[in-house]
């Protein structure tokens, strides 16, 4: 498969020291028969994106570090839209694939921390029309049960550990954003959607009900985030409808931050009481901090105004993923790590065996 300007995803499992630097990005232009037309080099991704001669062109990109080492891709030509861990086996990861065309929405599984992958669902797309798997989650009660949510084409369910998937025909929304299982009741599942807000199942996914909250109603949920300290505590990050919090797994919600002109985009925990969240306001990003367990938030400085999609704590370090690079937040200061990344825009952060897994929007994964 050929690539058009924004490099489609590849996976990287490379462990290098923190002092690594990017040497160059080799751009290999090809014709329709996959023959090399020309080779260009750029010093960074900004230079690649600013090169008007590449607009609309098909190319490969090779990343070379300061020691001349080439970062080799696996799963080349695949965008990883969603990624999650299996609660039963730390080696097992699930990934949802995004493509540019109908029928590109596929799901994959790794059994070795992401070093090798196989297609689930017999290698078939969830739908011949779907192009994007926005969420994939295995049940914490049995990994035979897996849910996958798509953009525009609804919710899909597997009851045989991913060998086959079927569409959940009675699910009320076509745009599925997040899926969370109740920590103690295998029958309760919450799903974040657009435009129906929170949808709940009380019977293990056999039937679904749109939740109607009378006070501060919200319907356009970008995603949900569940507290690692209290699994009953969940935040609904909304588009122009604020930030909402539940402490009883969705029975009741309260708005903890306004946001009529913003998209609440990411949220994560430094500890039980200190949280950070991000918003998009126009083309720039803002970061907010709470020191009262997420009941109130105040803005902190975001020097590069980067848009942060994820926050993740590993050991004592809080990472933040941006559209330009990876950041560390310490003492409410946002610092660019300047790590060598295969693509500047990060879609997800995940902790795997004590290491930071970085999923990028367009060029795979780094494991630090």
Notes on the protein architecture:
The chain is built from one helix and 31 strands. The protein is mainly beta. It has two domains: 77 residues, no CATH class; 236 residues, YVTN repeat-like/Quinoprotein amine dehydrogenase (Methylamine Dehydrogenase, Chain H). The strands form eight sheets. The chain has a four-stranded antiparallel beta sheet with strand order 2-1-3-4. A four-stranded antiparallel beta sheet has the order 5-6-7-8, with no helix packed on it. The N terminus is likely disordered.
Notable features of this structure?
368 residues; mainly beta; Methylamine Dehydrogenase, Chain H; four-stranded antiparallel beta sheet; 31 strands; 43% strand
The low-pLDDT segments are 1-20
- End-to-end C-alpha gap: 28 Å
CATH fold field value of the largest domain: Methylamine Dehydrogenase, Chain H
Q: What Rg do the Cα atoms give? A: 20 Å
What number of domains? 2
CATH architecture of the largest domain: 7 Propeller
